[in-house]
Amino acid sequence: MAAWVVLALGCAGQALAGERPTQTQAMAMVFPEAEIQRKELFLTDAQLAQVKALSGGEVRSKILVAYEARKGGALLGVALFDTHVVRTAQETAMVAISPAGAVLRVEVVQFREPEDYAAPARWTQQLVGQTLSPKLSLKADIKPLSGASLTAQSLVDAARRALAFFEVLHLAGEASPAPDAGAR
Fold first, then answer.
1. Is the pLDDT of residue 157 over 50?
2. Would you kindly state where each structural domain of the chain is located, as residue ranges?
3. What is the pTM for the complete model shown?
4. DSSP string, the chain
């Protein structure tokens, strides 16, 4: 089950060696000194169906929380945090997307599987620059991850979902604000 959770950012520090960055640190790594705007969006049934079709996977929630990073009013990108089950435990990955709809960075911020199954940064680097196309697949341009094939597939799926949400909501115009979004 994919759940989209995006958390606030504020700190520009990086994680210590061997540790995972916090959500705040992950956002600061890709969008340093940016102004961040939290957006809650409610997808219509048609938009949800479109995201599912584009991503090629399951999407269960019609509510999306995203952060837009801006500097001087210009959009630098959008980041989404995707929480999903890899094998038997959860992983949360930030997928940051450029205004043109390409992956800027994928950063794992939580990994509850054994560390032996975690994707190294050199593997996630191959997702950078990818767009929502058939090439974003372990059967195409993305190399498999020996000994951690479920992790690799989970991260590719997370990137595809994030890109699909971005395409439907940002490239084609935004969804309706989520119910009660103005009350917060």
1. yes
2. 3-179
3. 0.83
4. --EE----------PPTTSPPPHHHHHHHHSTT-EEEEEEEE--HHHHHHHHHHHTS----SEEEEEEEEETTEEEEEEEEEEEESSSSEEEEEEEE-TTS-EEEEEEEEE-S-GGGSPPHHHHGGGTT--SSTTSSTTTTSPP-TT-HHHHHHHHHHHHHHHHHHIIIIIS---EEPTTGGG-
